[in-house]
Write a structure and sequence with these properties.
single chain, 247 residues, alpha/beta, five-stranded antiparallel beta sheet, 24% strand, binds adenosine-5'-triphosphate, binds magnesium ion
């Protein structure tokens, strides 16, 4: 179960600084006293503590500008925390750089709101690209492609180009691309932000299916109805502060 620990919002009232509890060795993701201030002074995250266990599915919700994307960026090392520890799959991202960071990133699947597919490549090539880039042998790449496309219901569109697909289909290609390297953790930043309710639910159902086979899934969304339908816990960010799961 997801655990949200002390929050600055509660400790500030007492006037004493928050003391972050020790990190949890079982957690897939563990944040301890994490703050992120961008170079222009924007405070995106403030003293965030959070544990996400292996195999959990967690929604991160909150208004625009509340820090959701920043939280995910810290998890895949796109940004670094100014304070605190960000531990993913046993690695402390606050200090990880170079090859060791690249290695961890290969174990993290990422899905974005705007899909980020390569326009002049087919669906199959888009999904294969990450494996080519990792130098995986051709045979192994081919062994993985069909199951990944099947998982998102797009095996029949393998030879299409992104512009020949609907938005929902493009997002499902981006999910196939994220999971083809069988990562233990999948991060999705507003994956349904550009989709209608039916396609949104289809995307969430695929993420639930991936979670049911053991992948830890963290999804940011504005969409409260999707959270209610999915029946998974949610934490909320507001002005950089993380609040407890709603019951
Ligand atoms: N590269 C950056 N440089 C400076 N400030 C930034 C940068 N990225 C984000 N911010 C600021 O950090 C805060 C959190 O931004 P973030 O993108 O994490 O919010 P969000 O919750 O994902 O919002 P949205 O729902 O609109 O995607 C905002 O105040 C934003 O302006
Ligand atoms: Mg965002």
């Amino acid at each position: 179960m997801t655990q949200v620990l002390t929050n600055q919002a509660t400790t500030a009232a007492s006037g004493s600084p928050p003391s972050a509890p020790p990190s949890n060795a079982d957690a897939m993701v563990s944040l301890r006293g994490v703050s992120k201030v961008y170079a222009n002074g924007s405070k995106a995250l403030i003293e965030v503590n959070l544990d996400i266990k292996r195999g959990d599915f967690l929604f991160v919700t909150g208004p625009s500008g509340s820090g959701k994307s920043t939280l995910l960026k810290l998890l895949y090392g796109e940004e670094h925390a100014n304070d605190g520890d960000v531990i993913v799959d046993g690695h402390n991202l606050s200090t990880l750089r170079g090859d060791r960071l690249s290695h961890l990133r290969r174990r993290i699947g990422i899905v974005f709101q705007d899909y980020k597919l390569i326009p002049r490549r087919t669906v199959l090539e888009n999904v294969a690209f990450v494996l080519w880039a990792q130098g995986m042998p051709r045979k192994e790449i081919h062994r993985r492609l069909q199951p990944a496309l099947k998982m998102v219901g797009l095996a029949h569109k393998a030879d299409c180009f992104p512009e020949q697909l609907s938005g929902g289909e493009q997002q499902r290609v981006s999910i196939a691309r994220a999971i083809v390297s069988t990562p233990p953790i999948l991060l999705a930043d507003e994956p349904t932000g550009n989709l209608d309710p039916e396609n949104s639910w289809q995307v969430i159902k695929i993420l639930k299916k991936l979670n049911s086979v053991g992948i830890t899934v963290i999804v940011t969304t504005h969409d409260e109805s999707l959270i209610r339908l999915s029946n998974h816990p949610a934490v909320q960010l507001r002005n950089g502060y993380l609040y407890r799961p709603r019951q």
